[in-house]
TrEMBL record:
This is HDOD domain-containing protein. It holds the Pfam family HDOD. InterPro entries: HDOD, RNase_Y/CdgJ. Residues 185-373 form the HDOD domain. Gene3D superfamilies: Hypothetical protein af1432. It comes from the Bacteria. Signal peptide: none annotated.
Length: 386
């Protein structure tokens, strides 16, 4: 890993992009405007970033193509990198030529916003990005794409953007949109919470099996998970006792925490809160490990990150959800009030655009970056296997 200069931290703001099918497809990274070239070299100078987010694309919104010298482009693989330039900037002849050169080298290039009146953008710019914070965008050509709608704030705006022909979306809508299975009676999730309570008191395997047998949806998800590529098991797992043995209680507890966010029907759409919860859990676990936390402390850190979205999932106050789990006081303080070391770190992970507070939490720049990479990688894996 290339050492990072704390004086240049944070290198990037970031945001994940999802398809209309609620699957992550890309990661938007916004380099520092004052040091675009340095930021991009630090980000892409080693294979760490692209390896961590594979197979997702990396989208780079830039004010200009000026910093994209041949030497810099040599570390930006065209098959993984997408450039986004303001349409108004591309009205410049020099910028338009630069965009055409990048497209000719195999990069995908998006024009952000509408072209200025009387200006025709280069023919290579057939896909676009639109800020949808204030209003739904105008329809786009279905012949090209994918087109990106960003700052999508809620379910209504998402539906408008999808109807207008956009296929990629980012914004706060996963945090505000009713979940795909909101009409479900919640029985599976109540049983999951009951299973977690059983694990917390070290219940016998027989008790865990009996609870699993009561819920077909939960049973399906657990067996599908343990037979997935994530575990690389040589034999097919067909019973709950096998699944518990293969996973182990520690891993079973971890995956049950994430299965709370899984789709309730096998044919239902994925839940975008799932990778977000997985990312928070994995990053908090990585931060705990970097600071010398033992295995139990790391497990607790993961759980706090994974549970931090339960109030949005259930549309219920957090106090009413976690009361039965007998969590330690400092875990409750972290989840309910973002207090204590874990609470401060959770608040940092949540505030993707305000990570300058890392120094107050005693987190060095390189540690923060490594924890982000681990969080992203784990979340992508979870999203593909649950």
């Amino acid at each position: 890993m290339l050492p990072l200069d704390a004086a240049r931290f944070p290198l990037v703001d970031h945001e994940f992009v999802a398809s209309a099918q609620n699957e992550w497809v890309a990661l938007i990274l916004r380099p520092q405007r004052a040091a675009v070239a340095d930021s991009l070299r630090a980000l892409f100078g080693t294979p760490d970033l692209l390896a961590a987010i594979a197979p997702l694309d990396c989208m780079l919104p830039l004010d200009s193509a000026e910093a994209l010298t041949p030497s810099l482009c040599s570390i930006l693989p065209p098959n993984r990198v997408v450039f986004i330039f303001p349409a108004a900037v591309l009205a410049s002849e020099a910028e338009a030529r630069a965009a055409e050169r990048l497209a000719g080298e195999g990069y995908r290039v998006l024009a952000d916003g509408a072209a200025p009146e009387g200006v025709k953008l280069p023919s290579c710019l057939r896909t676009g990005a639109r800020d949808c914070a204030q209003a739904a965008p105008a329809p786009v050509s279905p012949l090209f794409g994918p087109h990106l709608a960003y700052n999508v704030g809620d379910a209504a705006r998402f539906a408008e953007c999808e109807a207008a022909g956009y296929e990629w979306f980012c914004g706060a809508y996963p945090m505000t949109t009713p979940q795909p299975d909101s009409g479900h009676d919640g029985t599976s999730r109540r049983r999951l919470l009951a299973l977690l309570a059983l694990l917390a008191r070290d219940a016998e395997t027989r008790e865990l099996e009996q609870m699993l047998k009561l819920d077909l949806a939960l049973s399906f998800h657990l067996l599908k998970l343990v037979n997935s590529a994530a575990f690389s098991v040589d034999i097919e797992i067909v019973s709950f006792s096998q699944a518990i043995h293969v996973l182990g209680r520690r891993q079973l507890q971890r995956w049950l925490q994430l299965l709370l966010y899984a789709r309730q029907r096998a044919d239902g759409p994925p839940n975008l809160l799932l990778p977000l919860a997985a990312m928070r859990g994995a990053q908090l676990e990585a931060l705990c490990r970097e600071h010398g936390g033992d295995r139990d402390q790391q497990d607790l850190a993961f759980m706090i990150g994974a549970f931090s979205l339960l109030d949005r999932l259930f549309d219920t106050p957090m106090e009413d959800i976690i009361g039965a789990l007998r969590l330690p006081k400092h875990a409750l303080s972290a989840l309910l009030r973002r207090e204590g070391q874990l609470g401060e770190q959770l608040a940092l992970v949540e505030s993707r655009a305000d990570v300058d507070r890392h120094e107050q939490a005693g987190i060095a720049a390189d540690i923060w970056w490594r924890s982000q990479l681990q969080g992203w990688q784990w979340a992508i894996q979870v999203g593909r296997n649950v």
